[in-house]
Amino acid sequence: MNQKKIVVAITGASGSIYGVRLARALTSLPVRVFLAVSPSGRQVMAYETGYESGSFEMFLRESGVIFHKGAKIDEIQPDDFSALIASGSFRHDGMVIAPCSMNTLAAIANGITGNIIHRAADVCLKERRPLVLLPRETPFSLIHLKNMVRAAEAGAVIMPPSPGFYTRPATIDDLVDGIVARILDHLGFAHDLSPRWEG
Ligand SMILES: Cc1cc2nc3c(=O)[nH]c(=O)nc-3n(C[C@H](O)[C@H](O)[C@H](O)COP(=O)(O)O)c2cc1C
To answer: pTM to 2 decimals?
Structure first.
């Protein structure tokens, strides 16, 4: 089995459901997910999803997710700089920060590595690995926009979670999965998570 390795980070912007639905989609595939949630990410996720503490894998399983037999989640503490994903010598297939707060965006755009999420993103940029950011704020200040440009110039894909409506999404999950589908496309996964435009 060809198990891919993907880093998923959830930070303290609104929209933790994007990270949760992404983790859900990845664990239905033969993927080893390295999951890091910032302290603010955990706080916002508690407001938005009700998940506060305990194993994230159990949270997914209890919400009905059926794991692929080749799927695994490694949960990483935000201050654990000895985690595998802190090193460029550890090879993986890409990182997604969903959602990405303006704080985390600023850290990445300026090479500041205050936690394992910033460090792992910094490693992706230096190693030229896929790094997908879902920055969430509204409106954006000039500082936010400039930080997005800096991150994009360094190689990140800036994918604001602004869903399309042409597929006529009926539920919030449909809307979110439209974005998760684009993330999976960028990481090179085959999927049928969301309808595609067929002309
Ligand atoms: C309910 C709630 C919603 C928030 N929404 C956003 C947001 O959409 N975008 C953002 O950049 N920050 C938002 N914040 C603020 C961040 O959580 C805060 O800036 C934090 O320092 C981010 O830290 P992190 O980047 O380590 O996760 C929100 C905070 C709370 C409590």
So the answer is: 0.97
Strand ranges of the sheet holding 31-37, from the earlier edge strand across to the other edge: 72-76, 31-37, 4-10, 95-100, 131-135, 157-158
Compute, in angstroms, the gap from residue 19 CA to the centroid of ligand 1.
Answer: 14
Decide whether any atom of ligand 1 lies within 6 Å of the 48 Cβ: no
* CB-ligand 1 contact for 14 (6 Å cutoff): yes
Show the low-confidence residues of the chain (pLDDT under 50). none
**Where do the domains of the chain lie, and which CATH numbers do they carry?**
4-187 (3.40.50.1950)
* Ligand 1 midpoint to CA 100 (Å): 9
Output the pLDDT for position 2.
78
pLDDT at 44: 97
